[in-house]
Structures are given as C-alpha cells and as structure tokens.
Amino acid sequence: NCAPAYFFHWLSGAVLTARRLPRPRDGGILLETIERERKHLSIEIHDWIGRYLSSIIHGLDYALRVNGKQLPEELQKNLCLLRTQCQNAAIDMRSIMNDLHPYLIEKVGLIPALESYSANFERIHGRKVYIFYRRRSLPLDREKELFIYRIVQEALTNVARHSPATEVDIHFHEREDTLQIEIMDNGGMQEKAPTPGKGLWGMKERARFMGGDLFYGFMEGGFCVTLTVPLTGKGEGQ
Questions:
Q1: Which run of H or E residues covers position 44?
Q2: What is the dihedral of CA 220, 196, 205, 146, to 10 degrees?
Q3: Which pTM does this prediction carry?
Q4: Where are the domains of the chain?
C-alpha cells in the first residue's frame, strides 16, 4: 500500500507550499493560520499514521497469540521487539500531535493541560515545573487558552535550550479583570540578554492579539516572562 508514502509526499509538499506563501502583515492572522494548519496536520497524522501503526500492532498481537508457540524463539523475540518499537512510535506520534494541537485544552481546560505538558517536560528535560493558581477554571475563551498555552510552552522551551535552571515557577494571578502569568526560572543572572527571535516574537504577538502585554528579562534569581491578558471582553482581532 502506497498510502503512507503518499502522505509524507503530501506533507512535505504542504510545508514547501507554506514557505512560499507571503507573510501576512497582521501577525494575529498569521498566528490563527498557523494554529489551523497545526490542527489539520495533527488530524492527518492521527488518521494516516495512527491507523497504520494500530493495524501493525494488532497484527503482531494476533500473530504472537495464535502462532507464537510454533515460531522459533529468536523470531518470537524479534516480533516482540518490533511490537514494542511500534508502541513507542505510537507514543511519540501522540506527543507530536499534542505539540501540533493540544487537544487536552478542549477537554479539560488550560490549567490541567499545562500540568500535563509540564509533567512531560520534567520527564524529558529533568527540570521541575511548579504551577501556582487560585482556581483551575479561568474565565477565558478557547482561543485565549490556546495562545496562553503556546506562550508558556515557548517559555519552557527557551529554559530547556538556553538556561541552566533546574526549576521553573508559573504563577497565575487574577487581578480584577486581568490575568497575569509569571514564568520564572532559577537559572540566575546572565551577562548577555536574549536576542529576540521567532519564539519571542511569537509570544509578544500572541499577547498583543489577545489585547495584552508581554515583558521578559532577567530578575534576581533568573529569567522572567510576564504575560498580562484581559479576563473579560475581547482581545485585538477577536
């Protein structure tokens, strides 16, 4: 069956096509477009790769269950190893899908989704993440929750890439009609300030699109990102 090969051909073509598109002047429109494409790719990965991985795993299960005792011991071991590799590939696939589009936000909301992401971040990078909040359910629409999730995700990615920090504290402060989120690591002061790149641009653009502000810089103890967004009303572009 040539479907998997066709999918990867289509995927590479989609990426190349996306690179040739002119960059919209409105950063908010660009971010919305990126999120739609991410969700679309996540669905495609699930429907194509997920289906084939599931079929392979079920086929191996059947072969081992029905014919396992009749197979040479070495072949049994190889089939079991192949099954384990397929299961690991399925786990990696779900992780990629979640990075493309965090469906957990739609199911349980922002705070639980960030707790899940932080636990996975700790497992991969060995950096502890502590989230502090007054209530788990916040008066935010799904679009704002997704943008805030992306900002926290990018901030943690920057810690993993650029900071010697061992811990990150994320504080949610509700103040009248605004929400302030502070993401602070314990990596200490550094002589060189971070050079604004695509990641920091994306964070500031998402804050602007929500009608909020984002500031970052070194403070006593480490690097801090502070995001402020309105809890009520609509942000820019909504």
A1: helix 27-45
A2: -70
A3: 0.69
A4: 3-100, 104-230
- The predicted-structure confidence for 73-112, as pLDDT tens digits, reads as follows 899 999 999 999 999 998 888 878 777 778 888 888 999 9
Is the separation of the CB atoms in 204 and 227 below 8 Å? no
Residues recorded for the chain: 238
In the block, tokens 């996306």 appear at 18
- CATH fold of 104-230 reads Heat Shock Protein 90 (3.30.565)
CA–CA dist 54, 107 (Å, integer): 23
pLDDT tens-digit profile of 106-143? Answer: 888 999 999 999 998 999 899 999 999 998 888 898 88
CA distances from 214 to 138, 155, 184 (A): 19, 12, 13
